[in-house]
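Continuing the batch. This is chain 6 of the set; chains 1 through 5 are on the previous pages. Same settings as before, nothing changed between runs. Recording input and output for traceability.
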Amino acid sequence: MNMRFASGSDNITTIFKEIRNLASKQAAFSALEYVFGLPKRALDFYKTYDSGTAFSAHPQSKVEPHNRVFNFQHKTTPANLTGSALNDLTR
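Output for chain 6:
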């Protein structure tokens, strides 16, 4: 796993000032690539992903419903934040 750090208040300030000049999608791609080191194959997937972030897909999306990342997250997140899914956190 690669980790990247930005240290120093001047560097952090510059990053946050420049983020507003990027489209939100581009800012997310930059963070995924440069901050989290997302592999190119995964980054390419997200760049072509046109389904949106809501429970329902964007009307002009070409992504099949069963392949929607955010649909999957909306369905699984509540189940994984309650009950036996949390048992490992209490050990």
